[in-house]
Amino acid sequence: MKKKLTLLLALCLVCTGVFAGCGSKEEKAEAPQTIDDIEGEEAEAPAEEAGEAALADAQEMVFVLNNEPDTIDPTITNNSFATPFLINCFEGLVTYDENGEVVPGNAESWECNDDLTVYTFHLRDGLKWSDGSPLTANDYVYSALRVLDPATGAQYVNMISDYVVNGTEYYAGTASAEEVGIKALDDLTLEFTLVAPCPYFVDLVSMWVYFPVQEATVEANGDKWTASADTYIGNGPFKVTEIKMGESYVLEKNENYWDAENVTLDKLTYRYILDVSTALTAYENGEVDGVRTIPSSDMARLKAENAGVQTVGSYGTVYYDINCSKEPYDNPLVRKALCLAIDREALINNVAQLDAQPAFSFYAPGYVVDGKDLTEGRSDFGLSANADVEAAQAALAEAGYPNGEGFPTVQLSFYSDDNVKKIAEAIKEMWEQNLGIKVEVSSADWAVFYDAVQNGNYEVAAMGWSADYVNPMSFLPLLYTDDVTNNSFYSNPDYDAIVDQVKAEKDPSKFAELVKQADELVSADYPVLPLYYKSNNYLIKDYIQGVYMTSSSNLYFKNAKVLAK
Prior knowledge:
By secondary structure, the protein is α+β, with helices and mostly antiparallel strands. 24% of the residues lie in helices and 22% in strands. The chain contains 15 helices and 25 strands.
């Protein structure tokens, strides 16, 4: 897409002269970062603010979700399917506005020391939980320590343990809570002390693993606190008032939210319709007001009809994980052959039928330093938009499987989704035809599928990644040895060493160079099967305004308004 979605990030050149957001809301970036939309047709413009348009008497809407999350506990999940709940029922120290800019959330201001190892956040006075009880800095401390407790099973534990002093030690049981570098200096002041300089820490705390959860309700209900509307206590613009498992969730305006006076929507119903074609029918029949996933075969028609397609540039990649810990996939030549045998253009244009750019690496374009995207001019790692059958067969032969002889049947798994199913079946056909190997495909609901992937019980599995915060460090840990997000079980000490340098580098130019080095090193080893760099599409009726999605694929409803029809 020719259009650009400009993101003014907290990762900007402010008070200390580095690219970290350590200043307050009033400080401005000297050099805005940008996300370039994926090449293709220009996106439809986001809906304009309601302005003087008359509002409907009933500020209520129904929005369809097409995948159920493993949990809606922000301190546990790393599942993007949970975000409709997490970012609308909770709020962290900072959040994102409709322009993708990091803005104050529970914290009205913050600052950091000169070497970027101590960050201090000042909470708003009078913060409350959705049940009306006070929310203080101590709640943030409790929640972080809960993440660091191995019994919690937090999937993003490393997002705290790797950064905060004694976080890893507390997780291992060798440090006390008092020794962890997260302190409530008073009810309104929260201090983080880090193990090393972190220029992007303000972006990091936008992630839901840093969100607060209420100690009283969690301790009283254990891991079932998210299963009941009465116990699902949050601090965001909405609260859950009704739960019908597998069918629907009802969210209503949280009158105890600090900015409740600017929340117009009274009721938001999430309705689960797993079949995307059925969901589209409900949308076109006027039964629902929005749908998260659009059937690819209907995209062109819906755009031509101005049916409410919203397209947002995404800092993300669609790829397949390859289990590098299993034979024969522990051989880079095998992985290379699998990557070479894919016709990415056919997948994009004929199968998925979407606007996307062929991917040759897991790391997506979209992060800019000094006016240049970090991926500009990088290698294609021998891959191309179309399948290179000759090179793929040569790599497989070099690995010891000429013409696919002796190669075990590939177990290709994916999660239940019509679009994902089409891609998996197309990949099966490409591998069988181009490599002479046999492929079996299987699917499962997301929770079952993802549990198997995390535990290494797979060979090649459908996956994808949208950055949780707009920085390359949202991608690089995906292939870092033993990282909780490393579902490929890939390990390369040289790569790990470069990533360690990236994490602490203050200088933007050096940071950029290190990111490129890490990308070049790991992508040439083919630990994943990259397919395409994506954009995100969803449907919303034209009488619904103010809904917005960030490049991390998060949908925010706090500014939503229903106009009179």
